[in-house]
Amino acid sequence: MSYRRLGVDSEKGAVGALRNLVEATRRGFADVLDGWVAGEGMVLHIDGAGSKPIVAYLYYRETGDPSWFKGLMQDVLAMNVNDSAAVAARPELFADYLAYNSLLLDGHVLLPQLAEGMRGALDLLKSMGEAPRLAGGETAELPDQVSTLDVVGILLARANMKEVVDGSGIKPGHVIIGVRSGGRAVWEKRENSGIMCNGLTLARHVILSAEYRTIYPEAFPSHHQLGGRFRVDEYLDELEMTVGEALSSPTRFYSHIALEAARCGASGIVHVTGGGHMKILRLGEGLHYIVDSPPKPDPIFLLIQREGKISWHEMYKVFNMGVGLEIIAERSCADEVIEDAEREGMEAFIIGRVEKSEDGRNKVTIRTPWAGMLTYSRTF
Hints:
Distance between the termini: 24 Å
Number of helices: 11
Helix content: 25-40%
CATH superfamily of the largest domain: PurM-like C-terminal domain
Radius of gyration: 20 Å
CATH architecture of the largest domain: Alpha-Beta Complex
CATH class of the largest domain: Alpha Beta
């Protein structure tokens, strides 16, 4: 089983045709453009919760509890603020775009839940000191175009051009610090499975019961006759939560950790979301990233791999596999980054190092006892 077979290209090779149109002043994990004030850069970032809303939809239809929609707003905010913080940009303004099938979802039920989720996520960011102002948004009822719902957001962030982290300073000898995606941060109300917004299409197709395809065809428009064996409300001891809770665990906010790392002198920051551990290939030139001390994957990833009989090469290309944020820095900065993360209740440790690439192409090699040696190269 692979992501591509389901119609999703985790490498997003075709996106280059559009990205090349962006007149970026600095190009790191996100594109930074000149701002309106000398020396200031701005990031206009747009991202969504991917196919994660389908999990919330199934949970709602199965249990009648609409509160499962709340977490989607944290997913959308986190996907935007984390990516922007990876270039040391601070969030200023946020707007949302909500599109849903009004024949299947009652706006009077759905929208209050999303609003409450938005309020809670913004309050949480405020407590961390880096929250954007909500500048409005758009709500669209599109029963002819949207099978369930889509939740997207756009963020305007600002950065000091002298402080932008664009990966150009990454050198052989720098270390790679990984911050866990699973576990429980001090501000989280429950354990986080760690899946964030990674590969939910692949996860749903190999885990969730094939019965759902018949009961809720709107949630499975794919032509592939796939399906797992678990219901969303089924509790699994190995997960220590229900399958639905694991798949809908909200994306963790890493923006404050990333911004602290930038102040410490980080040379590169990677938000490990869709595209998994290939995301680091965006940064620097002629570098070989060696990840030889990664954490054991969280139980949700082991479940996906086992149930879908998915290769480890595919798993690390699609999922974060337990590491939600990677920070590349000199060894002297590592202890400070790790202390900042652990103060928030997040595990963090040195997972690898940077070497010079022998053939001049950016590469990442992952070595683990369970997956052997995996190598990925930049193809764009």
